[in-house]
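hey so i finally got around to running the thing on that chain from the lab meeting. sorry it took forever, my laptop kept dying and i had to restart like 3 times. anyway pasting the input first so we r on the same page abt which one it is
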Amino acid sequence: MKQSNHTTFRAGLALLGLLALLLAPRADALAAAGTPTLTTLHSFSALSNNVNVDGADPPAAPVQGSDGNFYGTTSLGGAYGNGSVYEITPSGKLTVLWSFTPLGAGTNLDGANPYGSLVQGSDGNFYGTTSLGGANGNGTVFMISGPGVLTPLYSFSAMNAQGINTDGAQPDTCLVQASDGNFYGTAAFGGTSGDGAVFKITPAGTLTLLHSFTGVADGADPEAGLVQGSDGNFYGTTATNGANDHGTVFKITPAGVLTTLHSFSSLTGGIRNSDGADPYASLAIGSDGNFYGTTYDGGAYAFGTVFKITPAGALTTLHSFTSGADGGRLLAGLVLGIDGSFYGTTLGGGGTSNDGTVFKISPSGVLTTLHSFTGADGSHSQASVVQGSDGSFYGTTYFGGDNNKGTVFKLAPAAGSTYALWNNSGQASLWKIPASGSMTSASYGPYAGWTPVALASDTSGNAYILWTTTAGSASVWKLSSSLAITTSQTFGPFSGWTAKSLAVGPDSHVHLLWNGPSNAASIYNIVLGASSTSKAYGPFSGWQAQQIAFDYNNNTHVLWTDSAASEASLWNITSAGVQTSQSLGPFAGWQAISLALAPGGQPRIVWDFPSTKQAAVFTMAPNGTYACQALGPYSGWTPSNLSVNADGDSFLMWTSTSNQLSLFDIGSTGSFASIAYGPYSGWAPIAIAPGP
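ok and heres what got predicted. didnt touch it at all, straight out
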């Protein structure tokens, strides 16, 4: 199979024998997790004369680098008291990469007191800003490599007595690398009116002022970073001013043409309104193309809001915080999770100690408090969270922890349930197996001539069953989380074609993979119960499309196999239709049989060695390399299907010749627990999928 931009990786799977875990499937309880679990990964150390070894008061969430570790900043502490850049592993080992140097008469070269997150550029380096320091005391833009070599790229210029300069001053937030390769950001002060600015800076450090806020209709004090919309424009907020002196949401083109989309309304009694007030945080882009954000003040109860705003500026308040169990006062923005919900933190409220919360909110505004900080585990988070490739959320608190200088934390989501599909001569049974508690099930059919062949699920907890006939027909069923049929649609018959696999994208479209004559493939994009479009691929001699999966960016992943040559090819097709592929193998005697995606979108592939009843799970890294875990051999058992649950664990399905099913719950460390079901005479396990 020849595709563009592919890299070939070859490795000897004979090494698997050295890795094999010679454990038979057993009926241990699967890892139970009914609620999210917060772990403090690091408590920053106490200050002595404003300095320490690791930094203090982290204001922003760490970002995950391409190596899997997280990179962040502290606003204070470090070797000179001006903050630090650190690296921390998912298990909590922290390394200081840089301590910002002493100020001389208010200036230095590298800057001081960073308040924004880092961003990893396309070159692999990290880019950020400092709010103070630099050649003129008004902050810097810097680049730092993974090993900790920092390069100052730009020092913001001095301000006159009126707080005016030509480029902005004291940037408090992160940069965004745009599609043109340049970085875009905001400065809270300075500019030609003294009310802040929007700027563009090249990776080499050439800065261009795009807009100076006037402090009138366009707002003032942009404390938040920008996001680039699908239209190529940038969207952001100002914390103050605007038509009613309580901040704005704006759009700005790459050329610097700014449009105010919304001015937050006046406060009744100085504290309440309908839409919130004083937004300090960046916006997040939803899978629906709208923007979601937070405010510090206002709302129905005066403790801030979560809002949705369209690219045209129509704003909807989704939640008004009460400062009770839901928390209150938000300096942090939202992040879109792989489940389609948004996640964030509050500065206060929550439990009895009023130390803030971590929460989840649906696009329709249903809010769930996931954790209330106690002080011992952190306090008063100013930062949003980031979802790691393991499915957990990582963040920081500004205070609290062992020394009240802040923490880095990990919040592992609840595992959720697992759907399992069984077949008995045209009759289907769908099981919903929770991480803890009782299993539920429902049966459908029998339907003469039809066979259930595949299973999928969406982020809302709905399940999808694919039925096929030998004549080339297919039927897709959508079932609710209570296992009730809600929608179905039939396709075909199409002579010579067989429906093979299905998946559901973040836009809720169903994508159906067909195999056709001469090893061609076709992918249907279906609005279930309504319209569908299709695109054909191939034919590719010797290759067959096996399985399809979708990530939260709506990219299509397709697993192709050449069983005769023991090779696989993994395709990535972007929503814009850009197609790349990666070849795997040949691995003599092995066959790639199943594909699933980790929470961060990284593919995981199961390989089967039929002659010895072994399995190998490949976990793909963003750079195209992979880690391999071997399982087996297990006499009488065959690996068949893989799913990944919300907590990032792999669930590997094994079947036996006596109609048994065994599920392996494989954690991030490679350890696993298993549970077996059956035998059930006449019934054969078909597939599994993650559930709510």
